[in-house]
Structures are given as structure tokens and as C-alpha cells.
């Protein structure tokens, strides 16, 4: 697991609104963070009149809060997450519940009373307190504020005078962004609170029987925090986001008396988006292959918070009265499903090439100083860790050439800075740059001499083929070290041609799958009647002795090298695909072995969800590698065709050169080639 990465479960807290008539069916255990609800039901399938019985529903949460103290709510639910955001993790705090249950009061609070400030103002205070107390961290803060109203996303911090318009959602590499979103830089808490109040004035509110200031939209307040950690010369830059989400409350029209047209439409849009949110949570809990994040604007914005790189806290607000018991049970069931979700949070480090370069340069200097001190204490003062100069390389090259020509012995080549130092039970090797440079120069000298030798032997025809030589009248083939030969196959070995009476023209040649035919009238007499060895010697002369032949041969070799690299890359991709396929089969086998899992078995459900997440990741990697393999195959075929075209062009140029010289010199091919040799 990378440094700073952690698998974390979504934390779920319950806050009960104070009521003068609490329901007797609700029982709270704040110590164990449990809620028990006694539901009265009727049983009529046993004969006789219906009889009442009590059905108990138990919900397990992370904490149960029954206080109006806003500071206690912040400390128990949000403080730890805000601290994590300041360390570089993404974080999200959401409030969920029925209309009028206290969600906006929990998130925003009563701004007229300082003690009743909500989570958002207290989080601002903690962020800017960190900024003021640690100026060396260079903390920079930006904020944005948006609302989702009737499936439209609106910017609450837009520049004054600009018309309000719905923002567009962009999704790239799994990250969701809003085109045109205003991100305001803020320097202190006062500026942040001022912008926050301005955004609050633009929110959509309305009144009904349950709440005089009911929010009619989902709102997301986001702080973007950039921070530097470490000493001034070697700093890591982290970027984190804190999302404060105030969800609109689900409501029933018959309980809120919202029979007016626009209120009814708003309630329908709110309930629809919250229904899509529950469907998304349910799909995440089951580990389905497709997660419906794009069903609504709200689920799209919460994609990273529910199943991505983020630490998330959900605060469920409920109204503990008999009249709202059904809504309370529904909210708690949603909270129970959210509690099973897990996210993967990492410290978000920003790439800083200049800072990384400075860090590496300083580390190199420190390591060199440490090595020099260690060598001095061990008595090895001649060891150098600096780069070799051009003068030193030239001197080494001259000594190697003298050693190769037997003018100097091996002992005269300096290798004194290759040491094996032992100190008590610790043994380590010091391999200096000079020794590595020696090996490289030896390789260069060896390759150069070998190339010159092969060229000389090829010119005189002294290189034996790797296999038995072909007969005199052999077909066009490939010989290692000689390129491809241009001998013509015997007449009885050639396939019949539709353009002739069963035999090919003497002026025909074969190159791979390509057939080039020349008219007999254009070929000087005696050119094609010579032996294949003579034609092959002439071909080597053209390929190695003419500028045109050398250029075309170089192009062919370059394409063949490129083809070899692409084939090796394709083999590596095939190995990756096979490994992914094996792992997919293994994970499927584990899922199948678990069989049917009971809905109340949370541990097994979490294991199954983890396996399904792993299966999705493996399938994604498999499809990605498979698509990449198809692309590489197309590239391989294209390069193969380029190699064939290059060989065809080389043969065509050779025959033109061969015919032209034979024609203008006016002599038989045997005499002509003898004079050329």
C-alpha cells in the first residue's frame, strides 16, 4: 500500500432534534451508539381477529447525539475529518434527513448567536487558525459554493452582474469538475464568512407548515487547501478538498401541505434526487459492476465522496416524534447502508518538478559527502564519484585500443577505484563510474571491430551461411548476415501464372509475397541466364557499394529493429492479459465459494463487496490491456508492410542498376561481373 493510503469506512452519526413529545417507540443507547425502535404491527394470519405485536428494529451507528450544543456536534463528528484535510486528505461532511429535522442548523447554525455556529463556520475557523499559526506551511485557501436546484447546478459565488446559469459537469479520468465554477481565493476567516453569507442569501428557500425557512436545494460548500510541508528547501506540496454538503430534506406533500405548484415540483425534484442517491448507495454496497452515478446531478457531484479518494462523514438528522416515525426509520436504514461503504483515501501530493529536482540534487550532494567521509575513514582516498571528463575518456580509449592490439597489458589499464571493502560483518561493493565507462568502451570497440570484419568478409564472400548453402538455382530467400538473395527458382518449381502458359517469364523475381515482372524485350540478352551466385554477388555489390543501396538497406534495418521492439512489447502485453485473466478466475472462484450471504451478515457483505471491487479493477485492467494489444497489432502489421515495401524497393532498384550497367557496357553478364569483382 502506498505511503499515506488508507482504507476507511464512512462514519455515520445520528443527531436527534429536541422534541417536547418524543416517541415512546424510540430507545437510545449513546454508550453503544445504538437505536432501537419498537414498531406496533397487526398479525391476522393465525385466525380470528387481528392481534397486535411489537417488532423491534435495531440500528448500529458511530455515535448518537441528543444535545443542542453545536460545539459537541463539531468535536464528535467533524473535527477529526477537518484535521485530516489539513494533512492532505480529501474530506466530505454530509447532513441527511427529513425536512425540518435540523440539517441546515447542524451545517450552518444560527449566525446571529456565536455559540450556535454550525459545522461550516467552525471548520473555517480551524482552517484559518492553522494558516495563521503555521505561516511556514504557506497555506493557500480557495472556496466555491454551488446548489443543485431542480436538477440544475448553480454557482452561488458568481461575479455580481453576471446572469445566473446552470454549470456543466465534466468528467475526465474518473474526476468530476464543473466548467465555469468560481473559486474565490480567501486570505482570512472574515473573507470566507463574508462570501459564505453572500452565498447563503442566494440559496433557494421557501416556507411550509413544518419549516419557515426550508431549503429547496442541495448545497455543496468546498474549500480547496494547498499546503507545503517539510523544510524550506525540500518541501512537499499537498492539495486537499473539504466538501460540506447540506442535502435538502425528503418530504411528504400530505405532511407539509405543499399543494402549491412550485413547491410541489420542488419536492418532487428533491425526492427524486434522494431516491437516486439511495440507489447509488445500494449499488455500491452490493459491489455491482455498474454504479449509477450519472442518474442525477447530486450523485455525480458525490461520486468521489461515496466511492473514491475521500474520507466521508454522514450526519443523519431525525425528528423523534410518532408523527414522523416512518421518516426516521427510512433515514436510519439509509444510514445503515452508507455505513457499509468503504473508500480509499490517500495524501494528495502535487507534482512539483522544481522542488523534486532541488531535493534530488541535495540528496546527491549529501550522499557524496557521506561516501567521501566513509572512504577517508577506511583509507581509500583515491576513489572518485564524479563524472569522467572527456580527457579521461580519451585516455582510457587509447589504453583500451593499445590493449586490444597487444601493445599494453591488462594491468596497465587503471581499475584501482574498483574496491571491495569489508568492515566487521558488513560487506559492500564500491563500483566507480570509471569501471562502468571501461565496460562501455570495451563494448564499443568490440562492436566496431566486428562490424568492420563482417563487412570485409562479406565483400570477399568468405562468410559461411548459418545453414547448408542452397542449390545454385535457389529461390529468393533470407540469409542471416546477407540480407535477402535474388536468385531465381528453377522453372519447374514456380507456380503457374494466369498470364502465361504455365511458366513465369525469365524476367520475373519474387520478394516475400510481392511479384515484380519485367518485360523480356527490355532485358539485355544474357542478363538472366547467369547463375544465382553471380546475381547474389552483384546484389551485395549494389547494397554495400552504392549510395542508393546503402540508404535503402539502412531503412530496412531500421524498420526491422522497430518491428522487433513492437513484437516484444506485444508479448509483454499478452503476459499481462494472461495474468489478469488468471486473477479474474481466482476472484470469481472465491465469490462463488461464498454462496448466498444473509443480509444481516455485515462482515461477509463487506468481504464480498471488497472481492467485487477487486473484480471490477481486474476486468478494467484486462480490457485496457486487450485494447492496447489490438492497437499494437495494427502497428506491427503496418511496420511489417513497411519492411516488405522496403525490400521490394531495394530489389527494384537493384534490377534497374543491374540491367542498366549490362546494357551500356555491351558485354556478357559473366564478363561484366568479373570486371566488377
UniProtKB/TrEMBL annotation:
It comes from the Eukaryota. ATP binds at residues 97-104. Keywords: ATP-binding, Coiled coil, Microtubule, Motor protein, Nucleotide-binding. InterPro entries: KIF6/9_C (IPR056524), Kinesin-like_fam (IPR027640), Kinesin_motor_CS (IPR019821), Kinesin_motor_dom (IPR001752), Kinesin_motor_dom_sf (IPR036961), P-loop_NTPase (IPR027417). Residues 9-341 form the Kinesin motor domain. SUPFAM superfamilies: P-loop containing nucleoside triphosphate hydrolases (SSF52540). It holds the Pfam family Kinesin. Belongs to the TRAFAC class myosin-kinesin ATPase superfamily. Kinesin family. This is Kinesin-like protein. It comes from Sphagnum troendelagicum.
Amino acid at each position: 500500500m502506498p505511503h499515506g493510503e488508507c482504507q476507511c469506512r464512512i462514519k455515520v452519526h445520528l443527531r436527534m432534534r429536541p422534541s417536547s413529545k418524543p416517541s415512546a417507540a424510540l430507545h437510545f443507547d449513546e454508550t453503544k451508539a445504538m437505536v432501537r425502535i419498537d414498531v406496533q404491527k397487526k398479525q391476522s394470519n393465525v385466525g380470528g381477529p387481528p392481534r397486535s405485536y411489537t417488532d423491534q428494529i435495531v440500528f448500529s451507528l458511530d455515535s448518537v447525539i441528543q444535545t443542542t450544543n453545536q460545539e459537541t456536534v463539531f468535536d464528535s463528528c467533524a473535527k477529526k475529518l477537518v484535521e485530516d484535510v489539513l494533512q492532505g486528505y480529501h474530506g466530505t461532511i454530509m447532513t441527511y434527513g427529513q425536512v425540518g429535522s435540523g440539517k441546515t442548523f447542524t451545517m450552518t447554525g444560527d449566525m446571529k448567536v456565536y455559540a450556535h455556529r454550525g459545522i461550516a463556520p467552525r471548520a473555517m475557523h480551524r482552517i484559518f487558525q492553522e494558516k495563521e499559526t503555521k505561516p511556514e506551511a504557506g497555506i493557500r485557501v480557495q472556496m466555491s459554493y454551488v446548489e443543485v436546484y431542480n436538477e440544475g447546478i448553480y454557482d452561488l459565488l458568481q461575479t455580481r452582474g453576471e446572469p445566473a446559469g446552470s454549470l456543466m459537469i465534466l468528467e475526465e479520468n474518473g474526476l468530476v469538475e464543473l466548467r465555469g465554477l468560481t473559486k474565490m481565493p480567501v486570505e482570512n476567516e472574515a473573507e470566507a464568512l463574508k462570501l459564505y453569507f453572500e452565498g447563503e442569501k442566494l440559496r433557494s428557500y421557501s416556507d411550509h407548515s413544518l419549516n419557515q425557512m426550508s431549503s429547496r436545494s442541495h448545497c455543496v460548500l468546498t474549500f480547496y487547501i494547498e499546503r507545503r510541508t517539510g523544510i524550506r528547501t525540500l518541501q512537499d506540496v499537498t492539495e486537499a478538498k473539504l466538501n460540506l454538503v447540506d442535502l435538502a430534506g425528503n418530504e411528504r406533500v400530505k405532511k407539509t401541505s405543499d399543494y402549491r405548484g412550485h413547491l410541489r415540483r420542488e419536492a418532487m425534484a428533491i425526492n427524486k434526487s434522494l431516491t437516486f442517491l439511495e440507489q447509488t448507495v445500494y449499488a455500491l454496497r452490493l459491489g455491482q459492476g455498474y454504479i449509477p452515478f450519472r442518474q442525477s446531478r447530486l450523485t455525480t457531484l458525490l461520486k468521489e465522496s461515496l466511492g473514491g479518494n475521500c474520507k466521508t462523514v454522514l450526519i443523519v438528522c431525525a425528528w423523534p416524534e410518532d408523527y414522523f416515525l416512518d421518516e426516521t426509520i427510512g433515514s436510519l436504514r439509509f444510514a445503515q447502508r452508507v455505513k457499509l461503504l468503504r473508500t480509499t483515501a490517500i495524501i494528495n501530493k502535487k507534482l512539483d518538478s522544481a522542488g523534486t529536482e532541488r531535493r534530488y540534487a541535495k540528496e546527491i550532494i549529501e550522499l557524496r559527502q557521506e561516501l567521501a567521509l566513509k572512504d577517508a575513514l577506511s583509507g581509500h582516498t583515491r576513489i572518485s564519484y564524479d563524472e569522467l571528463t572527456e580527457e579521461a575518456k580519451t585516455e582510457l580509449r587509447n589504453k583500451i585500443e593499445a590493449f586490444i592490439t597487444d601493445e599494453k597489458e591488462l594491468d596497465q589499464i587503471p581499475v584501482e577505484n574498483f574496491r571491495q571493502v569489508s568492515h566487521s560483518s558488513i560487506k559492500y561493493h564500491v563500483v566507480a563510474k570509471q569501471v562502468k565507462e571501461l565496460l562501455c568502451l570495451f563494448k564499443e570497440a568490440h562492436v566496431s571491430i566486428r562490424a568492420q570484419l563482417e563487412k570485409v568478409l562479406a565483400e570477399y564472400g568468405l562468410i559461411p551461411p548459418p545453414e547448408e548453402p542452397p542449390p545454385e538455382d535457389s529461390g529468393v530467400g533470407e540469409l542471416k548476415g546477407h540480407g535477402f538473395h535474388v536468385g531465381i527458382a528453377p522453372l519447374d518449381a514456380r507456380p503457374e501464372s494466369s498470364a502465361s502458359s504455365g511458366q513465369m517469364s525469365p524476367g520475373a523475381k519474387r520478394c516475400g509475397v510481392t511479384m515484380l515482372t519485367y518485360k523480356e524485350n527490355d532485358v539485355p540478352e544474357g542478363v538472366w541466364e547467369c547463375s544465382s551466385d553471380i546475381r547474389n554477388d552483384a546484389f551485395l555489390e549494389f547494397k554495400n557499394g552504392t549510395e542508393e543501396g546503402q540508404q535503402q538497406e539502412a531503412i530496412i534495418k531500421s524498420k526491422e529493429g522497430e518491428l522487433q521492439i513492437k513484437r516484444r512489447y506485444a508479448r509483454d502485453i499478452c503476459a499481462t492479459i494472461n495474468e489478469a485473466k488468471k486473477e479474474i478466475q481466482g476472484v470469481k472462484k472465491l465469490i462463488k465459494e461464498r454462496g448466498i450471504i444473509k443480509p444481516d451478515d455485515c462482515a461477509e457483505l463487506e468481504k464480498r463487496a471488497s472481492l467485487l471491487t477487486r473484480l471490477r479493477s481486474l476486468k478494467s485492467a484486462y480490457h485496457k490491456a486487450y485494447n492496447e494489444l489490438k492497437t499494437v497489432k495494427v502497428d506491427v502489421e503496418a511496420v511489417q508492410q513497411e519492411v516488405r515495401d522496403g525490400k521490394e524497393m531495394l530489389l527494384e532498384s537493384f534490377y534497374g542498376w543491374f540491367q542498366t550497367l549490362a546494357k551500356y557496357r555491351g558485354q556478357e553478364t559473366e564478363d561484366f561481373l568479373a570486371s566488377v569483382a
